[in-house]
Amino acid sequence: MESVVQEKGNLSIHTENIFPIIKKFLYSDHEIFLRELVSNAVDATQKLKQLASYGEFGGELGELKVSVKLDETAKTITVSDRGIGMTADEIKKYINQIAFSGAEEFVEKYKDKGGDKGIIGHFGLGFYSAYMVAEKVEIVTRSYQEGAEPVRWICDGSTEFEITTAEKAERGSDIILHIAPDSEEFLSASRLRGILEKYGKFLPVEIEFEDKIINNPNPIWTKNPADLKDEDYLAFYKELHPFSEDPLFWIHLNVDYPFNLTGVLYFPKLKNDFQVQREKIQLYSRQVFITDEVKDIVPDFLQLLHGVIDSPDIPLNVSRSYLQADGNVKKINGYITRKVADKLSEIFRNDREGFEKKFDDIGLFVKYGIISEDKFYDKAKDFCLLKNTEGKYFTFEEYREATQATQTDKDGNLVWLYTTDTQKQDGFVQSARKRSYDILVLDSVIDSHFIGTLEQKLEKTTVKRVDADTVDKLIEKDVKLESVLSKDDEEKVKKLFEAVVAGAGTSVVVEPMPADELPVVITFPEFMRRMTDMQATSGQRSMFGNMPLMYTVSVNANHPLTSKLASLDDDAQKALAKQIYDLALLSQGMLNGQDLTQFIQRTVEVL
Question: Which residues are ATP-binding (predicted)?
Fold first, then answer.
């Protein structure tokens, strides 16, 4: 049957430059054309289902899948649905009047907001993304309405269109793209499959390509949590991240006021390097993939999680490719933070033992949240755990109570001690334990920042690394040890060690310590330790550049070897002082090269 031309005309726009605008300005990523056309086909299908549920469509629904077909020979891509279809009048209304406004008006309206803001559904521009890759587009469509005649619409990318009669037995629409020479990369089955799997993996209507259904129309986040088992959540996690370890636990998000939001967030096992850890949370809008750049909607620390968020209320730019910040985004951000904090609090209350076993994996995440979000801290302060060198866990309040009696200094400040390396700092840890002090293990990549936050938040509490000073100076008490050396002898010992040390940035002090402590102790200022650790975490160069690290050489005035120095001649004094100093360096892992070799040789000779 020969087609009959029913109408010819011009698209209702004020300029002939709409297609260059669409191609270059509106959609920067040309592969989005397939997402838009398939999404439109899904919308048409969903509308038919709704009409049927309202009793406004009495026919047989039949199979409602959307199909995508590639014809490499004809150089066409066809997207077909069995949805509501269109009449000729509807084509004139929805297709010919681009966005119901002119291109100039569109650009003018949004130029102050970056030119491409808004939600695409408000403009009806999705169909026209086809012209990013096609030199000509045909629509063959038949409305679901009784007695509707099939029609064909053709436009070659100019402002001229043609509507003719067509042959089409079933309701629905076929969108036929005649691919332009500069877009023939899309005439590849693997390329199209990749785009469909990226954007359409969870579309709510079955999508068929190459005789296979490529999507899961009923993903877990669309279901009622009460109907799901742990196995369902784990299976979906494997669908998202097939090569990852099982997650520790998860949160099912489900809210419909003051915005609509669903999703599932998984807590993965975190390694100690969160810079390379991020697997990306995927953002969907009505099951259409939008982006995995979710920094506005998800607080920074929650981006360590895996999973999916879906919300039709998130404002997107006109090409639906990324988020725009507005009031809803802030509300959603706050809701997710609160929901995560509530879940962690619930697990802590219901299963303290299980929570402690997981904390080494999630501690990095919780501490990151405490550092970066005050609202998260308000809740997390009750379930964030501190671990000591004996492997025991405490909440902040529990640890305050456990250390208050022994670790409060003469000014009434509580001093918490910590180690970043229990092996290297063992000597200092043992010295602190002799005083019945407790020592925390704070060895993660963000603990230097976490310590600073603790000191800001906790009243009259200071946190010091166990090798930041001699043990009696770490927590100063009213009772002070007396030196067995006279002032003159102390001065002689100080000068002797200054001659031995002779290092830039190094200071020597002689002070009374218990006789069973080491004769010489090397310590580093807490502020320098912390600054160096923070800069190492952020990947920045140290602000101290190539300067030698400042440290203090504390000589124990009450050690028998210090007293022995006074009875020796000059050469013997220097030799013993050097040996004692090298021993202190060795205990800090600072003795190496020729100095280490000579120390070993001297020690062997003495033996």
Answer: 36, 40, 81, 86, 101-102, 320
